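Recall that a protein's primary structure is simply its ordered list of amino acids. Everything else, from secondary elements to tertiary packing, is in principle encoded there. The following example makes that idea concrete.
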Amino acid sequence: MFLGGYANSMDEKGRVNIPADYRDVLRNQHGDCRLIITRDLLDDCLRAYPVARWRDWLAKLEKLPASNRTARRIYRRVVSSAVVLEPDKQGRVLIPASLRQAAQLRKAVHFAGANQTFEIWDSKLWQQETELVDAEDFDPAMLDEFGL
């Protein structure tokens, strides 16, 4: 699983190092170093999936009827922007310009573990997001429902 957060720098070409811990998870838990990187469904960040998890996600999406407007919008936002990337020997991937623009990625980026996937944020947007999370209360009823 992908845990923790990591700050990193992206070069002017859009190359960034995937954290070594995340590469270890890909290699040791998934047996495949490739990633599917795409726009996040809800937030202004990118989401990275191990190949097997991406296939699982697509299988869920394929159960929705083609006439479902939400499903079509998910395909347009997430599936159509997805790319398969494999870290090079230095652990770097080249994030396409279209994805960098969609997530507003600049030089400073933040990797955020999200269990079976991880997110790639512009560091300033990540800071704003975590400030929002820290300022908001969690819904006690929902916490009780999940036994937390």
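The first strand starts at residue 5 and ends at 9. The domain at 5-145 is CATH 3.40.1550.20 (Chemotaxis protein chec).
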